[in-house]
Amino acid sequence: MRRRLRLGMVGGGQGAFIGAVHRIAARLDDRYELVAGAFSSDAARARASAAELHVAPDRAYATWQEMAAQESARPDGVEVVAIVTPNHLHAGPAIAFLEAGIHVICDKPLCHTMEAAEAVARAAAASSARLALTHNYTGYPLVRQARAMVAQGALGKVRVVQVEYAQDWLTEALEETGQKQAAWRTDPARSGAAGSVGDIGTHAFNLAEFVTGLRVESLAAQLTAFVPGRRLDDNAQMLLRFAGGAQGMLWCSQVAPGNENALRLRIFGEAGGLEWAQEQPNLLLHTPFGEPPRMIRRGGAGASAEAAQATRIPSGHPEGYLEAFAQIYRDFADQIAAAPAGQPGVARSAPVPGIEDGLRGMRFIAAAVASSRLGATWVPLG
Amino acid sequence: MRRRLRLGMVGGGQGAFIGAVHRIAARLDDRYELVAGAFSSDAARARASAAELHVAPDRAYATWQEMAAQESARPDGVEVVAIVTPNHLHAGPAIAFLEAGIHVICDKPLCHTMEAAEAVARAAAASSARLALTHNYTGYPLVRQARAMVAQGALGKVRVVQVEYAQDWLTEALEETGQKQAAWRTDPARSGAAGSVGDIGTHAFNLAEFVTGLRVESLAAQLTAFVPGRRLDDNAQMLLRFAGGAQGMLWCSQVAPGNENALRLRIFGEAGGLEWAQEQPNLLLHTPFGEPPRMIRRGGAGASAEAAQATRIPSGHPEGYLEAFAQIYRDFADQIAAAPAGQPGVARSAPVPGIEDGLRGMRFIAAAVASSRLGATWVPLG
Amino acid sequence: MRRRLRLGMVGGGQGAFIGAVHRIAARLDDRYELVAGAFSSDAARARASAAELHVAPDRAYATWQEMAAQESARPDGVEVVAIVTPNHLHAGPAIAFLEAGIHVICDKPLCHTMEAAEAVARAAAASSARLALTHNYTGYPLVRQARAMVAQGALGKVRVVQVEYAQDWLTEALEETGQKQAAWRTDPARSGAAGSVGDIGTHAFNLAEFVTGLRVESLAAQLTAFVPGRRLDDNAQMLLRFAGGAQGMLWCSQVAPGNENALRLRIFGEAGGLEWAQEQPNLLLHTPFGEPPRMIRRGGAGASAEAAQATRIPSGHPEGYLEAFAQIYRDFADQIAAAPAGQPGVARSAPVPGIEDGLRGMRFIAAAVASSRLGATWVPLG
Amino acid sequence: MRRRLRLGMVGGGQGAFIGAVHRIAARLDDRYELVAGAFSSDAARARASAAELHVAPDRAYATWQEMAAQESARPDGVEVVAIVTPNHLHAGPAIAFLEAGIHVICDKPLCHTMEAAEAVARAAAASSARLALTHNYTGYPLVRQARAMVAQGALGKVRVVQVEYAQDWLTEALEETGQKQAAWRTDPARSGAAGSVGDIGTHAFNLAEFVTGLRVESLAAQLTAFVPGRRLDDNAQMLLRFAGGAQGMLWCSQVAPGNENALRLRIFGEAGGLEWAQEQPNLLLHTPFGEPPRMIRRGGAGASAEAAQATRIPSGHPEGYLEAFAQIYRDFADQIAAAPAGQPGVARSAPVPGIEDGLRGMRFIAAAVASSRLGATWVPLG
C-alpha cells in the first residue's frame, strides 16, 4: 500500500486558478493529502480557504515563512509543498522549504529573474529534498510517447521543429479591468521581464526540448506588446537553432483571436514526422516518410509503454489537462517513494521536470528578451 | 465548508475497470471519502483492495449483505454507496442499501432484467434515500448545454435525431481469451438479454432522450452477433419514433474497427442543428439554419451557464471522461446536501440521472430485444 | 491521338444547374466537343443557350425529338448525348437516342417511374449504343480505391455498412418561393414517388453497393415530409439487409441544418474498416483492426492503381466534385473507344455506372416508398 | 457570346506537370482554345505533344522564337501565350511575346534572377499586352473572401501573420534518381538562387501579402539544405515585419514528412482572426474575438460576393486546385475582354496577379537568400 504524502500549499487561496488545478492534480491519484497551507497573504482569505479545503485551523498559516518554520518542526509535518503563487513569489518559499528538507512542487516559470532562479538552483543542489516544476504538458501520455519515439529513432535525425502556443485572452486590455490573472501576468514586477514568453512561451520551449531531446543553442526573437499600454510582450516570434543542426520556429501569442490554449508541436526528421496538439491530446499523428499517416491514439493500437504509464482509463475515453497535470504529481510521488531524498542517483521510471528545466526556461526567457531588445538578432542560450 | 460524504463501494476490487473510475470521480471534487467496501467476492482480493484503497480492515466486508448490515448500524456508517458490479449484481445491493436509508450510486444499466429493475424502483420509492445512475455522458458540460439549448428552442421543433455509439474491442472473440470485461459482457447470465445494446446502446438512448427532452415511443431494431459463437448482440441498428413526431436512428456496435468510444449525437430541428461527439467533448457544433456553423467550446464564447456549472478549468484546457463522470458525483453530493433524503421535492440545480432513467433504459433494452426477435418489426417502449 | 467525341445535350439551358456541371465534366479532359443541343423547351432560351455555348444555330433544336431525327441523319451527327432534364424527362430522349444508335449519358435517377426505367432498359438491351448513368460519386479516386480494397479482402467479410447523405437546403419551404431546383424536386409529377430518396438517397444506395460489391436484399424505411405542405419526403431513415449477412443503415435528409452535401460511407468488416466523406474526398480512412488508423490520401502513399487511374494532379492539390464527375465522362469515352457500340463484351478498365445501376436505383426507390407506406415494414428489393 | 481566346503554350510537353494543369485551367471555363505551341526543346516530343493536344502540325513550333515570329504574323495568331517552362526559361519568351503584343500567362516565380525579372517588367511596361502570373492560390474563392474581409475591417488592424507551406517530396535526394521535377528545382542554373523559397515560399509570401493587403518590409531568414548534396535550400524559416507594424512568420519546407501541399495562412487582428488551408480550401475559419468561431464554407452562409464570383458549383460540392487555377485564366480572359490591351486603367472585377506580384516575389527570394547568407540577419525587401 502506498502511503499518501502530506502536502502543503503556498498560494492558491480563494479566487486563484492554478492552485485549484494543483489540488485536483494532487488528489486524482490519491497519493497526497493536503494538510497545511499559506493560501493567501490576506489573512481572512487564508483562513476561509483552509476551512474550505479541510485544512485544520492550526495549520493554516499567515505566511510561508511561518509555515516552513512550524511544519518542519512537526513530526507529522508536510513532506511536499506546492508553490502556486505569481512568479516573483516562487524563489523565497522554494528556497526555504528546500532548506528545510521538504520537497517542492513549483509552478512554472521557476522564478521572475535569473538571479532568483540560480539561488533556487543552489538551494536545490544543497538540499536532500527534490524540486519538481509543473511543466504539466510533459505529463500527457502521447507527449511521453513522442519523446520516446524520437529517442528510439523513429524519425531519424531531427531536422525541423515547429512549436507554437497561441491564446487570445489578452487580445484586449483585460488587465485594465482588474482581472487578477491578467493583472499580474502583465506586470513586470510580478511576472518578470517577459509576458507571453514567460507565461506560455516557456511551455512551448520546454515541450520542444523535452520531446526532441535536443537543446536550443541560440535564437532570434521579436517580442511585441500589441495592446496599447501593455508593459510586457503579448506576442513573440522566434527562430531557433538546435545543437546538432536542427532548425526551428517558436510562436507564442496571447492576442490571437480564436485560440484558447493552442499548444502544438511538429517535428520532422529524415525518416518521418510527429504532430501533437494540446487541445486534442489523445491523438499523436505519426507520418513515416513514404507511408500513410498513422493516427496513434492514447491507449489504442500503437500506443507505447511510456504512454501507458501515464494513462488511467481505456482508449476512447478522453483524458485531458487535469490528468496530465496529475501525472507530474504521481510521478513525483513515485520518485520520492523510490528514491528517498538524498539519494538522487536512483533511476526514474518517468521524467519529472525539475530544476534543470527551470533554469533552461529562465535562460530561454533571458535570451528572448535580450534578442528582441537588440532588434531580433541572434543570441546564444547561456 | 462542505463536509465530505462517507462513501462505500460494492465491487471494484483489483482488476476491475469501472470501480477505479468511480473512485477517481468521487475524489476529484473532494466531496466524498471512501471508508468502506465489499470490493470482491474473493475474500483475499477484497482485503488487498481495501488496504490499497486506505480502507480500514474492519470496514472491508466479505459481502455487501454484511456491509449493509454493519454500516447502517454505525453512527459513522457510509452515507452513500457506489455499486460497480456486473449488471446481474446491481439489484440486490441497491435494494438493501436503499432499504437501509443509504444513498446509492449505481452503474448502468440499472439491472439485468426488467423484473429486477422494477424491484429496485419500488425500493427507491419506499426509501428516504436517493439513487443516482451513472449515465456519465450526461455530465459533460456541452451535453448539458445542448440540452438547455434544445429546451430553450434554439433548434425549433426537433425533427431528426441521429445517435450512435461505436466501438471495436469485440471485433474478435475476446471473451474466449478469458478477458474479464469481455467475459461478463457477453454472458446472458451476467449481462442480461442484450450485449452491445445494454452496454453502450443504453448510453446512446439515454443521451438522445436527455438532450432532446423527447421520449422514444417505439422502435424497430435488428440485433446481430457477428462474431461466431457470441451469445449476445455485438451490433444493433434501430429506427426510432419520438413522441411529437421526430424520427431517429440509433446504431451501436462493438465490432466497428477503428472506433474506440465513438458516441455521437446529432439533432436537427426547424431552425438549426447540434452535433456533439464524446471523443472531442470540448466542442459543440451549432448550426443555425442559414448561418455559418459555430464552434462552441467548453468555457469559451457561447458557452452557457449549464456548461459552466459542470466545468472546472478554463477553455482550451481539455476536460474529459473523468471530469464528466465526476460531475455526476458532484451533483449528487449537491442534491444530498440541498435536499436531505426524504424531501424529493427540492429543486435540483443540475440533472442527475436516476431511477426513471434506469427504467427507461431497461424498457429500451427489452423493446430492442423483442423487436429483433420479431424480425425487426416495430415495438412500443412500455 | 484521341479524337474528341461529338456531344449533344438535352436540357441544361440557361439557369439550370446540372447541365453546366455536365459540360465542364465533358470538357475537363478534352474528350468531347459539344456540337448540338435541345437545351430548353423554351425556344428563345434554347437559342440563347446554344449561342452562349458555341453551338451552331442549325444544331440548336427546339425538341429532343427533332434533334434525334436530324442528328442521326447527319454524317457528323452527335455520337453521345447527355440528358440533364428533370427525372420525368429522362426516358423519352434516352430511348430515342439509344434507338438511333447514339450513346447516352443520363443523369440519375434513371427515370421517374419503374415502368419508364424498364422501357429504357429494353431500349438499351436492343441498341448497339451504351448508356452511362452519372452516379458521379463513383468517379472519386478514393471511392474507386475503397471498392478495390473491399474486393481484395482488406476488410475481410463485411459486417456493417453505414451510409448517409445529408443536406439542409430544403429545411424551409423553398419550393414555395419559385426556386426552380426545389420546385421540380418536390413535385411528384416531375420527380416521381420519392423526394430526398430519389434525389440523394439513390446516390447513397449506389455508393454503398458500388464500394461493398454487396446487394441490398431488403429494407425497412420511414420517409417523412417534415416541411408543412411538402408533397414528397425530405428525410428518410432505413435499415438495410445485404446478401451475405451484412447489416446496414441509410439516412438521407434535405432538412438537416448545417449539412451541405454530406455523403458519407463507413464499412466495417472482420478485419478492418473504411470511411470516406464526399466533402473531404481526398482522404480515405483505413482502420485495420488492431493497428493505428491510416490516412490514405489521393495520390499519396497507400493510394492504389484504381485511385491513380482517376487522378489528374499530384497529392495535396485537392480535387473535387467536378473532377469526379469528369471521370465518368472520361471513362465512358474510353469505353466507347475501346469497345465500339455493339461489342459489349470488351473488358472495361474502369467501372462506369450504367443501366443496371439505374434499375437498382429505381427498385430502391420503389421499395423505400412501399416500405414507408406500410409503416416501415420490411420490403424486398425486387 | 464570349469568344474563345486563341492560346499558345511554351513548354508543357509530354511528361511535364504544370503544363497539363494550365491546359485544364484554360479549358475549364471554355474561354480559351489551344491552337499553337512550342511544347518541348525536343523536336519529336514537341510534335507528338502537339498531335495529342489537337494542335495543327504547322503550329507546333520547334522554338518559342519561331512561334513568336510566326504567330504574331498570322491574322489568326495566338492572343495569349502560357509559359510553363522551368524558371530560367521564363524571361526570354515572356519578353518576346510581350513585345509582339501578345498577352502572357507566366508560371511563377517570374524568373530565375532579379535582372531577368526587371527586364520582363520593362517589356511589360512598354507593351500593349498584359502579363498574368499564376499565383494560383489567389484564385480560391475563400482566399478572395479573406482578402475582402481584411480590407473591409473584419479583423480590425492586423497584428500577426503566420504563413507556411510544407511538403515532403524532397525528404530524400529525389533529384539523384533522375526525377525531372526534382532535378530542375534543385538546380541553381534552372531554378535560380533559391530552392524551396522560390518554388513554394513565393506562394506563401504572395498569399500573405494578397490577403492582408500589407507589404513585408524586412525579413530574417534561415535557409537550409538538409539533404546531403543538395545545392539549394529545401527548408526555410523566416521572421517578417510588415509595414504598419504587423509581425509575421513564414515557414516553407520540402522535407517535412506527412505534408503534401500544406499551404496555410493565419491572420490575427485587433478584432478577430482568419484561417485558411489549401488542402481544405472550401472552408474559411473566422474567429471574431469573443464569439464562437464560424465556419464559412464556399458557397454557403456567410460566403461573400468575392467568393461567389470565383465559384462554379453549389456549396458542399468540393472545388479544388484546378478550379482555383482556372480562376486566374477566367479572370484574365475577363480582363482582356473588358480592357483591350493598351487600356490598363479599366477597372478589374477580380484581382489577377501580375508583374508587380512577380517583382515582389523576386525581391522576396533575393532578400531571403541574402539574409540567410548573412547568418539570418534582417534584410529589407527592396
From TrEMBL, chains A, B, C, D:
InterPro entries in alphabetical order: Gfo/Idh/MocA-like_OxRdtase_N, Gfo/Idh/MocA_oxidoreduct, GFO_IDH_MocA-like_dom
Annotated ranges, domain Gfo/Idh/MocA-like oxidoreductase N-terminal: 6-134
Protein known as: Gfo/Idh/MocA family oxidoreductase
Species annotation: Falsiroseomonas oleicola
Domain GFO/IDH/MocA-like oxidoreductase: 143-275
A Pfam family assignment: GFO_IDH_MocA
